[in-house]
Design brief:
Blueprint: E1 2-4, H1 5-10, H2 12-20, E2 23-27, E3 33-38, E4 43-46, H3 56-68
Parallel strand pairs: 1-2
Antiparallel strand pairs: 2-3, 3-4
């Protein structure tokens, strides 16, 4: 499932789908895509190659997305 950070804030249906799906592709405010895969008691985030680091703004966006997705 693909969702943007804006949709997570404004669309309750997208937020519910992202909470229920096991693998979700989130587009941050800067335009980068991060794949979040949920497991039983943890989750993993995959950053696209070759950029394996996040800026401070992207880290904050990722934290907000995780909170909205119920992680």
């Amino acid at each position: 499932m693909h969702v943007t950070l804006y949709e997570l804030y404004t669309n309750p249906i997208k937020r519910l789908h992202s909470r229920l799906s096991r693998k979700c592709d989130v587009e941050l405010g800067t335009g980068r895509h991060i794949t979040i895969e949920k497991h039983i008691h943890m989750f993993t985030c995959e950053l696209p190659y070759p950029h394996y680091s996040l800026s401070k703004e992207e880290e904050m966006d990722l934290i907000h997305a995780q909170m909205l997705m119920g992680l």
